Amino acid sequence: MPIARAAKRATVRLGAVVLAGALLAACGSGSGDSSDTSDSAGGKVTLTVDLFGSFGFKEAGLYDEYQKLHPNVTIKQSDTQDEADYWKSLQTRLAGGGGLADVQGVEVGRIASVTQQQSDKFQDLKEFGADKLKGEFAEAKWSAATTKDGKVLGLGTDVGPEAMCYRTDLFKKAGLPTDREELAKKWSTWDGYLELGKEYKKKAPAKSAWLDSIGSLYGIMIGQEEERYYDASGELIYEKNPAVRTAWDTSVKAAEADLSAKLDQWSPQWNQAFAAGSFATIPCPAWMLGYIKGQAGDGGQGKWDIAKLPGGAGNWGGSYLSIPRAAKHKKEAYELIEWLTAPEQQAKVFQKQGNFPSSTGAIEKIADAKDDYFSGAPIGQIFGDAAKESPVQVLGVHDQNVMQQLTNALSEVERKGVSSDKAWETAKKGVANVIG
Length: 436
Known about the structure:
By secondary structure, the chain is of the alpha/beta class. The protein has helices at 62-69, 83-96, 111-117, 139-144, 168-173, 180-186, 190-203, 214-222, 242-256, 268-276, 288-296, 330-340, 343-353, 360-365, 379-389, 399-416, 420-435, and strands at residues 12-15, 45-52, 73-80, 103-107, 155-167, 209-211, 279-285, 304-307, 315-322, 356-357, 392-395.
């Protein structure tokens, strides 16, 4: 899900998706090394999994499949829709040491915080044999969850190659072309995307805007950049980074042209808007596909399509599965997350939900995938090409917080008419307060 954070410490070179190396199948039963740190002693085990957003495991039937393979295991998943709320709650529980699940999801924008500031709170997965999996993931994905002293604190689930999702039925009503190749040419640049939005506005169906929010526009644009909020030395650079300013200014232009539905992402109103047709386009990382399906429902099937993103490839989001040191069933939890992140399972999640795999073997398996819900769009090719072309991103410890302050300030521009300059100053103060 969404990314970012800030602080003048070491940064993580995160692979948007630089994929290399061969992948060995990593299925099932886990590794067993050292001592069994669970308290189950071979009996019945209930594994708790605490996630945010939509990881797709339940939807793809993976929990049911795993429980059939392991009759002694019952899996219970809890969800928090908004990642920021989830992270805040997780920090509270980590500080107190109680109420933690056996498996906790970690968004990619938070992984630097885990490896650099909270490594004592999470289990080193090498103790259960995670070393043997290193060659099965993109190097950058693997290294982002590895501490300087070599501890492995998470296994990668997905990455977030970007595209543009759009409503073909709304495009037709506004007299716009619906062919994904033609649209990719028309909006090859972000200026082209805004111009097409202005055309849409002239004949748009009632109560329908061009895009959902300028926050999503900003997020997708900043995902196209290698350096955003930090440089490779760890210096906080967002104020002077022209890439950040370009994404900000383009988002402000969209607000000033009244192209947005003015919906805060992850809000109930935003969720309802998917089915209501309140916007015609939404910048969508691969993981957004499952979210759209869940919110738009059966009535949205065949009304959506996917085209190449304006301005080039990018990456927004991606996650990890980690095990707190305070977890009750660490060994069994490791066996589960090793199985869930194996190529076979990552491929199944992609085919059901659209979450793009972080394992090279899974990417090979889904290269020809298409999605009937999205008008037969060749999602394997679209997101696969974006993954290959995406930059390797520099992320810092407070990346997610910087991102959140900037998007919060843009919401003030969008919904309250606050000037760009005033909103920028508000964002700077917010960043300073969060970083401390």
